[in-house]
Amino acid sequence: MTDVLARPEPALRRPLDGPDDRRDHDLDAAQDPAPGALEAADAWVRAHVADGLWLAPTVVVAALVGVLGLGRAPGRAPGEGAAALAAWSLVAPAGSAPTADVAGAAGSVLGTPLLAAWATLTGALARHDDTVTALREASLAATLVAVVLLFALARRVGLSRPAAAGAGLLLAVPPLALVAHRTVHGDVLATPWLVAALLLATARRPLVGAVGAPAALAVAALVAQPPVPLPLLAAPLVVVLLVRSAPAGARHLVAAVATTGLVLVVAVVGVLVVAPSRPGVLPSSPATAAALLGGLWSLDPVLLAAGTAATLTATAVRRLRPWALTLLGVVAVAALVAAPLAEAREAGAGTGAATLALALPLLALVLAGVTDAAARSLRTTYDTARDLRGSWLVLVAVALVAAVPLAGASLRGLLVPDADDAATGERTRAAQAWVLATVRGGATVAADDAVRTDLARAGVPGATLVPLADAARADVVVVPAGVTDGPAAVGVRVATFGTGDDAVVVRRVPPAADGAGSDATGGTTPDPAAAERSRVARATAGAELARNPRLVLEGDSRGLLESGRVDARIVVALAVQLTATDVTVGAFPAVEGEAADGGAGDVRRQLLVTAVGGARTTAGAGYSVGTRWLRGLDGLTATADVRSTDAGLLATFSPDEPAGLLPGVTGADRAGG
Question: Which spans does this entry mark as compositional bias, Basic and acidic residues (predicted)?
């Protein structure tokens, strides 16, 4: 089979070997020499127009697939938050950026400035409150550039236009590729630079390639995610392409120039990337590699199975062998070295698919190249060749049919995330909104890097935002979904967004190991006995208030008031207002995320007033009187917010229920679980 696949069709001019023949690299252009400059220009235009007609829809499909669900799926990983924090720190006002976690502080040498430039120059931060989503735009843009360059590289090395377009789609559309390229990661940003280096290595002018290819590879290595500069693994392939592309008389010079340049590149990258990162000892790399590949297999078994078969086939073909060996090297180092280091460092945690981003263009080119070679060879006169290569095409057809049900579900989940996936981001944003509305200025908040970046952008002082690793010394902790230990065991829960392991939880850390005391939200450390005394005191006052004929209670308002589950400030504010006029209460709504289960922590601090003095509060006199009353409350009963809703006026009080406002109320029960 080696001889069969290695035998090129006479018209192909050594596919995937570089343009040895300098007359014309376009395989579909006319083979007869042009009689004049006009005819040559016409042939050049027709060839490139034909390329454009295949490239344009490829880029459009890649862009549409990349945009759909960009901010919702996949869920943002800790490594993305570290990248977002590092990028925003470069453009944030002095003193407003949180301090980076030491475990995740190492950013990409050039990747982080590129992310910062994209965020500011394109207005991405203005378009998105979520910093990670804003920076995912940069990853998508890098992918689209890589698709264009990969198409050009595929044409340069001998693939037909359909095969080149197929390589571009393989780079952008499969579920594995989509997850990788939607991740804020240095290797994703480095992908177009790697493809550019390979494209320059096949340049028509040997010295241009000998200088340009190492330079592009250097940029790729500096943009790539530290501490493992994966683009450098393509250096041998760059040398092979340069030598094969150069005329026979210039090959020694080209090889010398390229090798010198690559040695300098390795030295510079080693000083700027590897040494400062101090990678240390690999933590159980075989287990991490197995877990990574297992997860990727469940995500996209079709691409991995077809790519494995094509790569193994390509290793037996001389002209494909350098590409296949480079691909195997990148995958091996990414799985055995880069992935374990990423999981051990917050700067790369949860970004497994993106670790293989630099292998995807090589995989796409090898898979498209083997398929294209098999398709072209069907015109050969050798029966054995026809049978063997026809068998490969049958396998490709079977893989495409299998891809519909196997990859379809994964792809659909990425393009149109289900309710649970979409809700994950909403829960995080709701928790951030709760912190912004509730936590007092100067309180220390522990959260992951993504949340800290968004809170800092919203105006929270960076000095008060600390990493989750420092949760024990924080006043408030925002626990991400899926975290069940460490920060999740600190303090007491005060707000929950979602259910089960998918919930985002806000916890309050007591200021001391024992006793009750003041905390970040202004309340006190929960004490069960004090909480029960407060509930009884509120219930007594509430039951007396409910008997007032001037008070109309709708829905479950009466039950909440008489059971002691309404904040003492609301009870006092209603009692005072009822001495002057009638009041209709539509509800005592629970603040989103706070307990609403009837437990000790279920104390309502919102009041919905639907009528005052018999007039509806949605407009007119009722609105004016109600607004003046609620916004005029001051001192211990002052409101934190008053807004108009379709049902009436909604007043929200801060979590710090004052002790002693009602006899027996201690203010020590603003927590749950």
Answer: 10-28
